[in-house]
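Need residues for this backbone.
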């Protein structure tokens, strides 16, 4: 099963660093947060990744193009212009980086890669949030209910997309948060059937707005409630929190 990662936004709320690189390439413990997300998926056996790039997407391509050089001991023979890898520490991943447009919305980015995904289910998450969700349980939940889409939900008091759901996980409404709301939000880490492409019209389609609400209205959106760790990285304060957890050896998302 492919894992799609949204990585094309401008990252304006953390512009101190995103002016130089895409937000998913901002580092936690010397590695891009994108790498941390991929390592979590990889620990559950998911190794086929598709990165949906946009803003400064070439930085992501360059990172993976030079991955083995950055993670191996290498001898450079300057006379013969040969490179010998002495001790390779790479990943058994397949990584496809797609330029899905500079100003394309989230749903539009997914629609653009339909030809690469094909007629099969896939996982999707955002390139700026780490989590220790049990992906085996998430997939089992998705397969059991048989609906088009599953999103991972967490209880977290923050200005994110709000979910109104029933006891069995059926989502009735998906909208932006307001002051009267509780704290059950969309944490990403989603699973979709290929029918999701029927709900995506083009570049201006926002996954978290009309698409999710239409799925909810039709009874095709379910929520998996995760009670463990989740943290996004929208600001320098949130980045420091993740850095401190990693440096202290207390990073809950490190499942590998």
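Answer:
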């Amino acid at each position: 099963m492919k894992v799609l990662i949204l990585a094309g936004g401008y990252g304006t709320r953390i512009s101190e660093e995103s002016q130089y690189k895409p937000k998913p390439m901002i580092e936690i413990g010397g590695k891009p947060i994108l790498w941390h997300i991929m390592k979590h998926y990889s620990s559950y056996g998911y190794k086929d990744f598709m990165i949906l790039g946009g803003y400064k997407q070439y930085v992501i391509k360059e990172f993976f193009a030079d991955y083995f050089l950055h993670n191996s001991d290498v001898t450079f023979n300057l006379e013969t212009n040969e490179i010998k890898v002495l001790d390779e520490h790479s990943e058994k991943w397949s990584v496809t980086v797609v330029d899905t447009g500079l100003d394309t919305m989230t749903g539009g980015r997914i629609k653009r890669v339909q030809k690469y995904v094909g007629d099969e289910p896939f996982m999707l998450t955002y390139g700026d949030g780490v989590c220790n969700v049990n992906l085996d349980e998430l997939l089992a939940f998705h397969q059991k209910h048989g609906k088009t889409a599953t999103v991972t939900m967490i209880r977290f008091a923050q200005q994110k997309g709000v979910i109104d759901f029933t006891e069995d996980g059926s989502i009735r409404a998906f909208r932006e948060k307001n002051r009267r709301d509780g704290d059950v939000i969309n944490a990403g880490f989603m699973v979709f059937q290929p029918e999701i492409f029927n709900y995506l019209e083009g570049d201006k389609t926002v996954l978290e707005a009309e698409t999710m609400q239409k799925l909810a209205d039709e009874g095709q959106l379910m929520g998996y409630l995760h009670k463990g760790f989740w943290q996004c990285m929208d600001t320098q304060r949130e980045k420091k929190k993740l850095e401190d957890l990693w440096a202290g050896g207390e990073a809950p998302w490190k499942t590998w």
